[in-house]
Each structure stands twice: as structure tokens, then as C-alpha cells.
Amino acid sequence: GEDVEQSLFLSVREGDSSVINCTYTDSSSTYLYWYKQEPGAGLQLLTYIFSNMDMKQDQRLTVLLNKKDKHLSLRIADTQTGDSAIYFCAESDQGGKLIFGQGTELSVKP
Amino acid sequence: DAGITQSPRHKVTETGTPVTLRCHQTENHRYMYWYRQDPGHGLRLIHYSYGVKDTDKGEVSDGYSVSRSKTEDFLLTLESATSSQTSVYFCAISESASTEAFFGQGTRLTVV
After folding, report:
1. pLDDT score, position A106
2. What is chain B written as a DSSP string?
3. How far B75 CA lies from chain A's nearest CA (Å)?
């Protein structure tokens, strides 16, 4: 079945780059997403990438997609304390349903 | 924020009682989803709807039912709540199957 895997924790210093990794299994996924969840809040869509793209950049965010290895990464440049949150990777199936990873808790230390 | 309102935001209920959670949208989006979030599992799909009166099961549908009698409302019912259904429930909407989903703020349900 479909499965999405993420490491659970990442700790970085303010100003450094953060890289959050994700692997997925469904090669037919059309879109892959990154969501951010702050404590007590819902999920906020950060960015997404079409499966026929290798890279997408949006201000401090860079998404890299390696379709051969089914590996997705999110790089946050110049990480700030406000970036501390849980980041979810998700793939969508043909019906638009999202399959989420467990989430990576990013901790940014001053 | 997308126009999604979940109610109630918090609820404590007793084992064996029925519970209904409501998701209301003002975006006129066709697709609506109910997910639950539990530690170590991320979010898992319970049920979804692709139109009025059109619903289907997700990964963890046992013990849950849904109804969608109009575009803007998607109801999730726990017929007889159990402690394993203690969770945070999120509603999401999307315009189509190939567009991004937007999430509500969540409902924290505790079954005692």
C-alpha cells in the first residue's frame, strides 16, 4: 500500500538551513505537498510540486524531487525561530486523497 | 484562511455516546475530507465526499459515518464513541481531485 516516511525530529540553529526529508511509495502520485502545523493550529499549505518537476523554489523554500528514489525534500534557508513547527509531507492519489507522513518536528534554537 | 469552520473546537464525551462533528465551508468546493491526527501516525483519512450525497470510505473509517446533504456542510458522526476515537479531527476541502487541500482548525475530541 501507499506509505510516506519522515524522520521525526530536526534541530537547527537560527540562521542555518534546514532540510526535511520524505520518502513515498506511490509512483503514480500527481502532486506532493508540504504542510506546516504550528502548536494548536490546523495545517497550512507551504508549497507543492508536480510529479513531473525536479525542483521548485519559493522565497526561502526549495523543494527537491527525486522520482527515481521516490524522495522529496524541503529546504528552508535562513531558518528563523518562527519556523519551529511540525512539517508534514503528503502525496495525493488519483482521487485527490492525501497520504501523510508522520510529521517532522523542527526545533530552531537561537 | 480558506473559509472552513469546524464545530465544536473541543468536546469531551463519554464512551458509548453519539457525537457529531460539523465542517462548514464558504468556498463552494466540491471535495471535502475528514482526517484524524494521532501521535506517530500523522493524519489519516476517515471519509471523504466528492459531491452532495457522494461519499466514500478512507483508511480508518470503522466506527464513523458521514453525511453531506448540501455543498457547504460535511458531518462526521461517531455512532457510539470509544476511547480509541480520542483524537484531533481535521476537515479539509479542495476544489477538485487535482488541486491543493485547505484545512480547518481542528476539533479536539476526548472520549472518557
Report:
1. 97
2. --SEEEE-SEEEE-TT--EEEEEEESS--SEEEEEEEETTTEEEEEEEEEETTEEEE-TT-TTEEEEEEETTEEEEEESS--GGG-EEEEEEEESSTTS--EE---EEEEE-
3. 18
State the pLDDT confidence band at B50, using cuts at 50, 70 and 90. very high
Pick the more confident residue, B99 or B31.
B31
Q: Which residue of A has its CA nearest to B97?
A: A96
Task: Note whether B45 contacts A103, CB cutoff 8 Å.
Answer: no
Find the mean pLDDT for residues A69-90. Answer: 96
DSSP state letters, A44-86: EEEEEEETT-SEEEETTEEEEEETTTTEEEEEESS--GGG-EE
**Residue A72: all three cell numbers together:** 522529496
User: What's the CA gap between A67 and A53, in Å, rounded?
Assistant: 9
CA of A91, closest CA in chain B: separation in Å? 11
Cis amide linkage into residue B8, ω under 30° from 0: yes
d(CA A18, CA B2): 28
Beta bridge partner(s), residue A98: A92
As beta bridge partners, residue B55 has B49
Partner-chain residue, chosen from B44, B90, B102, that has the shortest CB–CB distance to A45: B102
- Give the CA distances from residue A52 to residues A28, A62, B18, in Å, rounded to whole numbers and listed in that order: 11, 16, 45
